[in-house]
Amino acid sequence: MTAPLGAKRVCYFFIFWFPVILYSAIIFYVSSLSSVPTPLSGFQFDKAIHMVEYAVLGFLLARAFNGGRRPLTNGAVRWAFVAALLYGLSDEYHQSFVAGRDASWLDLVADGVGGYAGARIYAIFVQMCLEARWEKGGQAGKDLRERKDS
């Protein structure tokens, strides 16, 4: 017995897009705080935090845009980067209205670098999983062999 189409869409949403929305909401909330204590405040530790924060977002976005397809589509990585960069832009704009915070182009660059890195990490992760299955001779391995042959 198969699930109705509506149930499949709800499952798809919760599996792939709900984590993106939840994590984006967390970023929005933290950006709304007047001050966020960071260790090593004299150092540009803020940029490293932005990169890690957006690497997670890029990873989740690549996963959502790919939607569980095997192998990973190049479009998923590109769209994840673009979406993370646009969300970073909106986040910097949002911070310009928060007392004690300001918008920074360097933060936006760190957001973009992190978003791209997270999307590429997801692509590498998917590739490693496909290669592991290929060695076992499963369907994913067959998909990978067909992709490499073409």
Features:
150 residues; mainly alpha; single chain; 0% strand
- The rough form would be described as globular
What Rg do the Cα atoms give? 18 Å
Look at the structure and give the mean pLDDT. 85
Q: N-to-C terminal Cα separation, in Å?
A: 36 Å
Largest sheet: none
Helical run tally: 5
**Helix fraction bin:** over 70%
Number of strands: 0
Tally of separate domains: 1
Percent strand: under 5%
Oligomer: single chain
H-E order: HHHHH
Structural class: mainly alpha
Spans with pLDDT under 50 lasting ≥5 residues? none
Task: Provide an overview of this structure.
The protein has 150 residues and is mainly α. The protein has one domain. Helix content is 77%, strand content 0%. The chain is built from 5 helices and no strands. It is globular and about 55 Å long. The two termini are 36 Å apart.
Topology:
Layout: H1 5-32, H2 45-66, H3 74-95, H4 105-136, H5 139-149
Please give a quick description of this structure.
The chain is mainly α and 150 residues long.
